C-alpha cells in the first residue's frame, strides 16, 4: 500500500528477497482501481501515520477493500502504523479515534516506545524456529514505535523485546512494531513470502 509512509523502502527490500523458484514482483497500490486490477498475492502496509493512512484510504475508496482482504484471509504484513491499522483495538488514540482495518486479535498502543527523539535499535528475542535460523544477529529499529499490550490466544509471538511482543502472527496476518525495511536485512519480508504467501 503506497498511500503514506516508507513504502519505497519496503519495495526495495522485497525486490532483494531471494527464494529459489520464486520471482518476487512488486507493485505500488494507491487506488481502489489499482487494488482490484492487480493480481495481488500479498500486501504490505508500511509504517507512517496510522490516522493519515486511515483517512486517505477511506477518501480513496481503499479502506473497505483492505477490510475485505483481511476477512478473506489473504496475506498481509503491517509494520509500525500498519500494525495499528490491523489491530482489533488501539490504546492512546488521537481525539475522536480513527478507523481500523482490524482482524488481528491484539491491542496496540500508539507511541509505546516513545517519540521520534526516543528512537533506538535493539536486539530481539526471536521465538519462532524458522525466523531464529534466519536472523543472524538481527536488531530491530524502533522509530516512534507502537507496542502490543494484549495478545489473543490464537496469536503467535514471533519476537519480543524485554518480555514484550514486538512481532506477531495470526494466520495470514503478520505485524512488527519495528522497521525491518530500514535495515539491510530481508529476513522478515522473506518470512512473510515463504510462510504466509507461498504456503496459502
List keywords for this structure.
200 residues, alpha/beta, Rossmann fold, 6-stranded mixed β-sheet, 3-stranded mixed β-sheet, 29% helix
Would you summarize the structure shown here?
With 200 residues, this protein is of the alpha/beta class. The chain is 29% helix and 25% strand. The radius of gyration is 15 Å and the shape is globular.
Plain-language structure description:
This protein is of the alpha/beta class and 200 residues long. The protein has a single domain, classed as Rossmann fold, CATH 3.40.50.880. 29% of the residues lie in helices and 25% in strands. It is built from 7 helices and 11 strands. The protein has helices at 7-15, 32-37, 50-59, 63-71, 81-86, 129-135, 187-197, and strands spanning 43-45, 76-79, 87-91, 104-109, 120-123, 125-126, 139-142, 147-151, 156-161, 164-170, 173-176. Strands 1-2-11-10-9-6 form a 6-stranded mixed beta sheet. The longest helix has 11 residues, at 187-197.
> Could you report the average pLDDT, rounded to the nearest whole number?
93
Radius of gyration over C-alpha positions, nearest whole angstrom: 15 Å
Number of domains: 1
In CATH terms, what is the fold-level topology? Rossmann fold
CATH domain class name: Alpha Beta
- Uncertain runs are none
- Overall geometry comes to globular
Main pleated sheet: 6 strands, mixed
Order of helices and strands: HHEHHEHEEEEHEEEEEH
> What is the number of strand segments?
11
How many angstroms does the end-to-end distance come to?
21 Å
Just name the CATH architecture.
3-Layer(aba) Sandwich
Number of helical runs? 7
Structural class by secondary-structure content: alpha/beta
